[in-house]
Structure formats: structure tokens, C-alpha cells
Amino acid sequence: MPVIDVGGTRLNYDDRGSGPGVLMLAGTGARGRTWHLHQVPALVRAGFRVVTFDTRGIAPSDTPPVVTMPDLVADAAGLIERLGLGPCRVIGSSMGSRVAAELSLRHPELVDRAVLMATFGRPGAFLDAMSAGERALAEAGVKLPDEYRAAVRAAFNLSPRTLADDRAARDWVDVFQLPLPGEADGRASRLEADAAVDRLVAYHRIALPCLVVGFADDLIASARGCREVSAAIPGARYVEIPDAGHYGYLEQPEPVNAELIRFLTEEKP
Predict the structure, then answer these.
(1) Which of 8, 200, 214, 242 could pair with 232 as two cysteines, CB 3.0-4.6 Å apart?
(2) 218 catalytically annotated
(3) Of 94, 104, 159, 189, which one is the catalytic site residue?
(4) What are the mean pLDDT values of the chain's consecutive 10-residue runs (269 residues total)?
(5) The domain 3-126+182-265 is classified under which CATH number: 3.40.50.300, 3.40.50.10320, 3.40.50.1820, 3.20.20.60?
(6) Exactly one of 62, 71, 218, 222 is catalytic; which is it?
(7) What are the CA-CA distances from residue 11 to residues 23, 50, 64, 161, 204 (Å)?
(8) Annotated catalytic residue, options 61, 93, 97, 246
């Protein structure tokens, strides 16, 4: 993947296909290539130019000590401008959805429409508790055994239906034992991306077509929270994918891709 300078920040990115531009924003700690297994091939076949990237904080993109929401929004906007994508379709998942929503508010001229998957507009008790626990572990210098951490990640991010399939569960646990971004070189950035800030009132000002996708079994960004976001954005459409957890776009790629392509190709009202 090539590296591009965006406002003084070096970002590792991938650019495939031709046609209307799509920028994909991954969740916290996820690399851009997360989208390459299922979503990128489907979107390229559908006639789109698709750009993915590793956000700042994930090597080989720059890894400053702290990454904030304004940083992430500025990087996305700068990448759209540098690559001549705008106004483009924007797809986000989890924290990437929060970035997509803020990008739609702060730079609407760069966004044609937005898909917000596994998103939330305000902090929830469970997400707060999990974030606090992760911070406490990091501050204490505790490193959980890879096997245990993999099992916990699977429980948090996958549907019970997936975990009930022994073969699928073993495959996912194997994947989750791989090092997290930034662990290999010890240079992971601290993310301070406003996850604890209530943005539902601000979302009333989004004036672009939006599709909100919730995953029925998502423990981290609940379907209820996704419905709240959809209700807050004027004219937004909500779709819920069954038998899917926080990584629903990987667990249930066919229905997710069908919804993405339907929304990205339809005529704007």
C-alpha cells in the first residue's frame, strides 16, 4: 500500500477500481485491509473506486502519542481532497461511523452520502465500562495471555450464532490471537476520539442521505443505539442485520454488501 502525506500526516492507503469514489473508515484499531475480504471486491465489481487506509495511530501510518476526533476527521477530509474523491460516498464502522458522521457535519461538500454501521450517538453503560476496563489494564501495564484475550474479543465482537459453530469459533479465535495494530513496534497511539460525548443533538444537523446499519447481536454498539442515531438524522434509513455482532460486516457480508450497494447506487432524493 502506498503512503500519502495529508496535512503533514503520512497515511498508508489503498485505491482500487474506477467510478464514483467510496472512502471506507474502519473502527478503532482495525486496519484498512479489514474491508478487503468482502466489501472492497463487491464495491469494485459494482463500479466504484474504493479507498481504504490505516488511520493515524496504526503503523505504518503515523503514530503520534494521542489521536483525537478532529485529527481523524481532518485526515479523512484531507485524503478525499488529495485523491480527488469528493464529493464521495463514505462508509464507516464503529468509530469509523462516528468519524463519517462528523465529516458529514464539518465537510458536507466532500460527502455525497454516508453509511454508518455499528454506530452510536451517545455513551452507553456497557461501552463505558469496557473502555474504562481497557484503560485500567493499559495503565497497570497488564498484558493478558493471547489465548484469553482472543476468547474475550470473540465474545465481545461476534454473534452467539457464530460462536455456536465450533469450526467458525475456532477460526475466529485463531484470527483474534494475531497482534493488535501497533503492538509489534510498541508505538500504538492513545485514542481520545470523543466516544464519551453525546452527539445525537448535533446529528440533527446532518443534511446528507444516510443509511444506518445495526447488527442485532452487537454488544459494543447496540442495535438500539443505532436506531437512536437513525432517528436523530433527518431522513436517515435504518437496516438491521440478524445473527451478527459488532463485526457483522465480516460475519454476514452478503446481506451487508447488498444493503451497501443498494444505498450507494440509488438516486438521491
Answers:
(1) 200
(2) yes
(3) 94
(4) 91 96 92 94 98 92 90 96 96 96 97 97 81 81 84 90 91 74 51 77 97 96 96 98 96 97 91
(5) 3.40.50.1820
(6) 218
(7) 14, 16, 12, 36, 31
(8) 246
